Amino acid sequence: MRYISTRGLDQSLSFTDVLLAGLADDGGLYVPVSWPMIFDTSDCQSYQDVAMKIMFPFTSKDFSEADFQAIIDDTYSTAVFSDPDIVPLKPISNDVFLMELFHGPTLAFKDIALQLLGRLFDHVLEKSGQKITIIGATSGDTGSAAIEACRGRKNISITILHPNGRTSDIQRRQMTSVIADNVHNIAIEGTFDDCQNLVKQAFADEPLRREKNLSAINSINWARIVAQVVYYVDAARQLKAIPTFSVPTGNFGNVYAGWVAKQMGADISSLIIGSNRNDILTRFFESGAMTMKQVEPSHSPSMDIQISSNFERFLYECLGRDSELLCRLMQDFKANRGYQVDSSVHDNIQNQFIARRCSDDDTLATIRRVYSESGIIIDPHTAVGVHALHASGVEHQGPCVSLACAHPAKFPDVVEKAIGIRPDLPDHLQDLEDRKEKYSVMANDFSKLRDHLLRA
């Protein structure tokens, strides 16, 4: 298994190379040269079995089977995840299930991949004697999950950027209360997209990238994607059916992992995209035009995004892996804040996803409805996915799985507004509001970030 850049860089890399690099040297995203096929998961008895079967073929033989199995078992254990099923399915009606992805240490789906990445980095760096500097941007959940995965690791320095004042208090505190020498939190005066652009500028700065051995932990890192593929396959295994999945998404990485699972032969009927009021993805599926607007704060802040970075991987496939055409579209997007695809490409794209939007009022109404009908409390991001499923017209046409991406206690204000109940944090986070915080506020200025990274 080798990997190539979406933007046509004349090189192919191994899994370890891609893991450490994150972003390609030409600014593109890495994808595998071909898709390994899932022929049979009937012998899989657990999440760990599925994880091994799905991920090991992507590792380019960089790991022995025994080493990779040990990493899988260490990651997906009850010492790390509070539910032995890792991603349990909970019914909210006869044929609609929530896939709970929030049983990791930071209560969000990002733990599923990032707990694995921390261990993969450790294994690779220990063998090579290298050190890396990880830089990432977060709209809320990735940052805390990345920090939790990398805190205290001797060969890693990690800097996480978050938009100042645009995460929930709990999301911020989960990041900024980790006091470790190798962890650096920076609140950027701007939006998540500004944070993401700063990360891309850092990778485009060749001297900086080489000197600090930069690596990415956002979903632009291919290893993040392949780890997320697993739970789609595992849900189909648990249901013994071919389900439809509804996915709340802003950066497109989570739903793209479902699309990858389909390319590998997984039993998936349809994939539904749920957007909040920052509905650039839904607008694109309706019109074929990817056009940026101003980011607007919403009840689901982790999805307050206008640049869906992982969409480039999917678009690359829909363009027949034409890197030259992809580069032109990406240049248009950067220069003109938008691009338009041909009608034939748009038709192909529309056949592969259903996209629906969810207003803040819809978010509150969905939290109320799910609680009234099932007694289950969901967070506002999960509500976006449940609403999209309900609005899609495919609900009750077969088993449906809506991804529950965060614990409701991470967004207590919105939940309380919806149902009058303020959900409690789990025991290990009960004292979160009393913990000391450590972070700096920085202007949206790459020169300042560069100075920090050189010192970190």
What is the fold's blueprint, element by element?
Blueprint: E1 3-5, H1 15-21, E2 30-32, H2 47-55, H3 65-75, E3 89-91, E4 96-100, H4 110-128, E5 132-137, H5 141-150, E6 156-163, H6 169-176, E7 183-188, H7 192-204, H8 206-212, E8 214-216, H9 222-239, E9 244-248, H10 253-263, E10 271-275, H11 280-287, E11 289-291, H12 311-318, H13 323-336, E12 338-340, H14 343-350, E13 354-357, H15 360-374, H16 380-392, E14 400-404, H17 412-419, E15 440-442, H18 446-455
Helix pairs in contact: 2-9, 4-5, 4-9, 5-6, 9-10, 15-16, 15-17
Relevant terms:
456 residues, alpha/beta, Rossmann fold, five-stranded parallel sheet, six-stranded mixed sheet
Q: How would you describe this protein?
A:
The protein has 456 residues and is α/β, with parallel strands linked by helices. It has a domain at 89-105 and 223-419: Rossmann fold, CATH 3.40.50. 43% of the residues lie in helices and 14% in strands. It has 18 helices and 15 strands. It has a 6-stranded mixed sheet, sandwiched between helices. Strands 8-5-6-7-15 form a 5-stranded parallel sheet, with helices on both faces. A two-stranded antiparallel sheet has the order 1-2. β9 (244-248), α10 (253-263) and β10 form a beta-alpha-beta unit. α4 packs parallel to α5, α4 (110-128) crosses α9 (222-239) and α15 packs across α17 (412-419). The radius of gyration is 20 Å and the shape is globular. The model has no long low-confidence stretch (mean pLDDT 95).
